[in-house]
Amino acid sequence: EIVLTQSPGTLSLSPGERATLSCRASQSVGSNYLAWYQQKPGQAPRLLIYGASSRATGIPDRFSGSGSGTDFTLTINRLEPEDFAVYYCQHNAQGLTFGGGTKVEIK
Amino acid sequence: EVQLLESGGDLVQPGGSLRLSCVASGFTFSSYAMSWVRQTPGKGLEWVSSFSSNGVSTYYADSVKGRFTISRDNSKNTLYLQMNSLRAEDTALYYCARVYSHYFFDLWGQGILVTVSS
Lengths: 107, 118
Fold this sequence. Notes:
- The complex is a heterodimer of chains A (107) and B (118).
- Chain A is mostly beta strands.
- Chain A contains no helices and 11 strands.
- Helices cover 0% and strands 50% of the residues of chain A.
- In chain A, the strands form 2 sheets. In chain A, strands 2, 4, 5, 6, 9, 10 and 11 form a 7-stranded mixed β-sheet that branches. In chain A, strands 1-3-8-7 form a 4-stranded antiparallel β-sheet, with no helix packed on it.
- In chain A, a hairpin with a 2-residue loop joins strand 7 (63-68) and strand 8.
- The radius of gyration of chain A is 13 Å and the shape is globular.
- Chain B has 118 residues and is an all-beta fold.
- Chain B contains no helices and 11 strands.
- In chain B, strands 2, 4, 5, 6, 9, 10 and 11 form a 7-stranded mixed β-sheet that branches. Chain B has a 4-stranded antiparallel β-sheet with strand order 1-3-8-7, with no helix packed on it.
- The N and C termini of chain B lie far apart (39 Å).
- The A-B interface holds A 32-33, 35, 37, 44-47, 50-51, 56-57, 88, 90, 92, 96-101 and B 44-47, 95, 100-106, 108-111.
C-alpha cells in the first residue's frame, strides 16, 4: 500500500499570505493519480486539484498543484478567509489512499 | 441540483448488519462509477468500495472485503452498501462519492453516521 504523508500537520497563516502544503508518497504515483481536497468543519471534502495540477470545476486560480513521482505540493496564493480548512491529498495508483491532512488555520 | 443523499446509518451491535443507500440526482447516474468513502477522527479518510460505471466491476478495501457488498440500481439512481459482520472499527461517517477521471471524487454526499457498539 502506498502511504501518503502530509506536512506540516498545521499551518498558521494570515489572510493574504501564501500557503504551501506538501504530500509525499512512499513510492511513485506518477503525475496523473494525485488529487487534493479541501474540507471545512461539518462538510464533505471538496475536490480542488486532480492529476496533480488540474483545477476542478469552479476552483479559483489561487489554488495550484504541482509535483510528480513522490513529491507533490498544493499552493494557495493570497489566502482568503474561506480557505482556512483541512486539506487532504489522495492517490489512486496501486490502490487508493488519502493522506492524513494539513490544517490551515488563522494565525 | 446535482447532489447525493445518503441514508440508512444507525447504531448497530458488533456482528450486526446495516444497508446504506445513496440517491443521486441532477446528473446521469448510470454514466458514472460510484464509491463509498468513510471518515473517522482517528484514521481520517478511508476509501471503502467502488462500483464501475459499466455495471460489472466492484472493488473493495482489504479492511471490508468479504463483509461489505456494493451494488447499484441505475433505474432508481441509487447506490447501496450492504455491511455485514460489523466491527467497532467500522464506526465512521460514510460518504457516497461520484468518481471522476482516474478515481478522484468530484461530488460527495453529506455523509451518514454508522456506529458499531454494544
